[in-house]
Every structure is written in C-alpha cells, then in structure tokens.
Amino acid sequence: MKTQLLVFAMITSVFATQMQGQNRTTVQALNSEISDNLDLRVVASIFGDSKNLRDFERRLNDPKLQISNLDLNNDDQVDYLRVIECVENRTHVIIIQSVLDCDLYQDVATIEVEKDWGNNVRIQVVGNTYLYGQNYIYEPEYYYTPLIYASFWISNYRPYYSAWSWNYYPSFYYAWNPFPVFRYRYNVNNCLNNYTYNHYNYVNYRSCNYAANIYNSRRSNGYERQYPEYSFSRRNSQVNNRYELDQIRNTRNVGSRNDVGYSNNRTEYPRANAPQRNDSQRDYSQNRTEYPRANAPQRNDSQRDYSQNRTETPRANTPQRNDSQRDYSQNRTETPRASAPQRNESPKENTQSRNPSSGDNNNSSRGNGNRRS
C-alpha cells in the first residue's frame, strides 16, 4: 500500500512540473511585442495611395500586400482590419479596428485629417496607447497630393462605416497565417521602398485637439479589457512608446555589430597562425623557382644557336632574288609608258574620221525624211 502511495505521489509531482512548464511557456509567448506586427508607416503610405476609404480598407486586408501581421485573438490567422470614420466640421478621424470575435473589436490606430481655414491639410497617424504606448505619432509628407483628400470635403459627404464583421468578409479577402517578425519587417521594407519620395516624421504631440474628443466617443477596446496586464507600459516598463523602444534596439544592434573587442579577436586569430604557414610556403616557393633556373641555360643555348642558323639562311638568298625582281619590274613599267602616246592619238583620229561620216548620215537621213514628206 505504501509503495502504491509513493508511486501515485511521484506521478502527481511529474504532472505538476509539466503543467508549470506549460504555464511558463504561455507567459513567454504572451509577452512578445505586439506592436512589431503592424508598421504605421506602411499604413500611412497606402492611405496616401488610396482613392477613398473603401479602397483603403481593401489595401489594408489585401492578401497580396500583407500589410498587417496582427493576430490578437491567437487563432493562428491574421485579423481582419475594418475602417470606420467620424467627422466633425473639418476634422476626419479614421479608426482602424481589429476584428476579434462577434461584436468584439480592438482599436489599432487612428488617422486624423484636418483642414484649416487656409485650406492646408494636416494628417497624423496615431498608434493605439495599449499597443504602441503614449504619443506614438507619425506625420507623413506625401510627394504627391493624395487623391483621398478630394473625397473628404465635398457637399453631402457621408462618413464611411465598414459593412464587414466577424466571419463576414469581402470576396477578395482570405485569412493567412502570421509570419515571423523578421519576415514581416522584410515585407514592410519592400513596401516602403516603393514610396521613396514620401517621408514619415515622428512627433510626440497631436496637432488637432478636437480629434481626441471625437475618437473617445467611438472607442473600442475589447482586447484591452480582456488582457489589461499586456499593455505596452507593462510589456516595456523602461520606455514610453514604440519609438523609444526602437531607439534602444538600434543602439543594441549597433553595439553588438561594431564591438571593437570582438572584431579584434576575429582579426588577430588568423594572424597568430599566419607565420608558421608562411615560412614553409616561402622556402618551398624558393626551391621551385630555383629548379627551372638551373635547367634553363642548356635549353636556351640550343634554341638560340638553332634560331640564328635559321635566320641566316634566308638572308643569304635574298639579295639574288631581289635584284632580279627590281630589273623585271622596271622593264614592265617602261613598256606601257612608251606605247601610251600612240594609243591616245589613234582614237582622236578615228573620231575625226568618223564625225564627217556621221554628219553625212544624219544629213542624208534628214534629206530622205524631207523627200518622203
């Protein structure tokens, strides 16, 4: 009986350790940085390239572009991003929401567009505080004026509100599995390189005071209410927003790549082995160079004597052949010069003798023609 109790206790302890290991693994997965899965600069770039908000929502969820990599509900499928709009006077607030479940949405970012009385348009892309931290804002500068601006300030404008919801998506859309972060960044860089003339300036303040009040009236935070402990401030307690987190990451990457001590160790390692190998190579190279030099004189002497004999033979025969050719060439050239005047005079005489006859013939022919007439 005691042995059975001991075996049972051991089994329960093994299951307990396994459950603890699983819980630790789950916590590590949930602590991954959520903001790595959606770059707001790409959101700003496709917004400036869209015709209207319907086209903008299509580009956000295009399976070919794959702008988003968010999977907030952990179903191993990238969430659909829907777009809704709030308008007040000359201010448009476009809200991007992640569809998590039936009637469950989480705000990801907002695009705030305002037109002042001087007809100057100012735009800001603001990241959600829960995902990106406090005041994570980009101001895009477009090389060309976006076409979407023309659709905002028209008469009888109706704010856009997406008709799609959970399990009810447009025909072009199909869900895809999320990628690793490094692969998503590679895709994002390719998309940003296509818009090289645009600039995305980071700021930490909002230019429109009315936009915050408009947004608060239509706010959706379903994921935030479910997991309040996974906010950006708790995931990254040392920084305020995603921009500061990127600065820390860049300094760490530069320090690890440009570490002087590490580079010196790598360069000194082959230098320490170089002398032993170079000494053997130098002795061997000298022996090889001296070996052909010792054999070279015997072979070169025979070649030089033989080459001189071959060159002297044609030189002795050349004078006799050249004299005969020169005499013969002079005889040939003098002959046509002596006969040339005779041949030139004969054609002149013939032409003179022929001309009267030809004239008579012409006169005769003309006379015959008159007689006939």
TrEMBL record:
Q: Which domain of life is it from?
A: Bacteria
Q: Polar residues composition bias: which ranges?
A: 250-267, 275-289, 297-333, 341-352
> Disordered: where is this region?
246-373
Composition-biased stretches, type Low complexity, lie in: 353-373
Q: What is this protein called?
A: Uncharacterized protein
